[in-house]
Amino acid sequence: MKLTRRLLLFLTLLPVLIGLILLFVPARSPARAGSSLPDSLPQDSERIEPEKLIFLLQYLGTDYGAAVESGQVISEFEYQEMLDFSQLLLEESRQLGPPQEILTELENIRRLIEEKREWSEVRGLTLSLLPVFSEHLNVISYPAVVPNLSRGKRLFVENCAKCHGLEGDGKGPSAAELDPPPRSFQDLRMNQLAPHQLFNALTFGVEGTEMPSHLESLSDQERWDIAFFIMTLRKGFNPVPPSTLLPVTLKSLAVHSNEELLGQLANSGVDAQVAYIDYYRENPPGASLQDLLLLAAQKLHQSSEAYEQGRVDLALKLALDAYLEGVEPIEPALAQEDRGLTVELETQFARYRMNLSNGASVEAVNASCQSVMELMKLAGQTLGDSEAASSFAFVQSLAIILREGMEAALLLAVMLTFLAASGYRELQKYVVMGVVGAIVVGILTWWVIQFALGISPLEQEALEGMTSLLAAAVLFSVSFWAIRQVDIRNWKEYIRQKAEHAMGTGSGLALASVAFLVVYREAVETILFYEALWMRSEAAGGAIVMGLVLGTLILFSLVFLMFKVGLRIPLRPFFAITGVLLGVLAFVFAGYGVRELQTIGWIKETPLEWMVRFSILEVRATLETTALQLGILLSFLMGWFQLRWSGKLETR
User: Fold this and answer.
1) CATH assignment of 149-282?
2) What is the CB neighbour count within 10 angstroms for residue 445?
């Protein structure tokens, strides 16, 4: 009999085991034969980086003043560098085939340098050419996430202070050995530099100097952190908050110098001073929704270009960056306006990544890329300027706390009601401890992500995905146990066996761990959502707080009502309802966890074109998600029917 019961239990759990196995079946390697990828690939040394050309143009505009003054060369090294860089810029630009008017302007810059003309002429020409040239090269470079100046300072000390000094004065321990000497970031010329130029210097290094490239050693966000921190080292840096908000965005702070920003504000009739700009340098606002979509479009375009060149790994990385940095942050806002569009955009992004992974033809990849581009354009039109409205910020805030907290509130109510109905009210404190602990650890995790380790969007997705799958496993186990207690004989036997341990620490910790896992996942995600909302709509802070408070009150009311109603339900239907609710939560968490890990490429994606999507239950059109969720459903139903027809399920 015992062997039969074990066999039945194994058969019941078999669908879940099959679903788990399918998650880790190796994906097919990107196809080469039969695809239209190029046979010969350009070597990295032969490739022309558009971002580097923009950097050279910026460099000429800011540093020419240190080479020539009043028609005379004041630094032979700097002047020779200007000649070399202007020639390199012209030659490499010609290979990209820009419009003739851009080439003419580049030739004019070269001629002005050869004639030793005034710095104002060279700078004026570079500034007027920068936006046109950047648009032609599809270079729109600014951070997707607000730079962290505290982390930037730490990274500066670790990577830059040896040459540039702790204070950025160019007098670091190694400075005396370098020729030319390191730049001083305290110089007033810093008013003519934009963080974008510093970001590019960190990315590519500076030829002819000891300044190395940090492309491999630092992430994009870390380089932005350092670039924004360096802007605060200027002598006389004096941040003063303006009496009214200035029309300054993260994008404008990244791509424009202090002088350019002051000129733009003056032309708009805004009374501003450098101290106000310094304030925004030290406290940069969040990226707008439209800016995030522009970043995503740029990276997606670069991804398709990389695929055409046969650089599949780079194409996949850029596609992932486009989604994590540009699309995912706008999804909460977009979902409030058009949930269907949100799901379709996410689906098309996944399909594009699958085309890259499966070695589809260049034509198919480009068509898929174009589909995503059109959806992002539609998303931009849908969002419009809704982020500026307080009412919209309130609705978003309320929706975030209700959406993210509903599952946790449901589980909390079920657990508290179960303990009260079973006569173990003393153990309710462990559930509360698990919830409080999850909230505290969630806040600490956010702090670590933001200020200590600088966890990337990819690592955040991995954390959420793994936590969700672990929570799904725990919830499935608890739900499976709950339906076995529908048979009151099993329940009485369970009470008899466990009564002496009910007050023990082990039982309490088990309850606390279930509450902790579910609430922790929701807490981390909720904090990140609110951070993004606050940065986008800081002016509507009051509305955001009101939405959070109202949503929290609704959730507490829901827990209270479920607790009161649950106490009036007889044990048999109570266990049935509890088992079903926990099973549904396990189903949803499993789908969410798989989707998150598919997004970052940790689990393969096999599309099911015929599959119906149901985002509320995290039902997605991939084989992996469907297999695991179907396994959970089948195992749950098999356990239920075994109980119903045989009444012989073994108690826990």
Assistant:
1) 1.10.760.10
2) 19
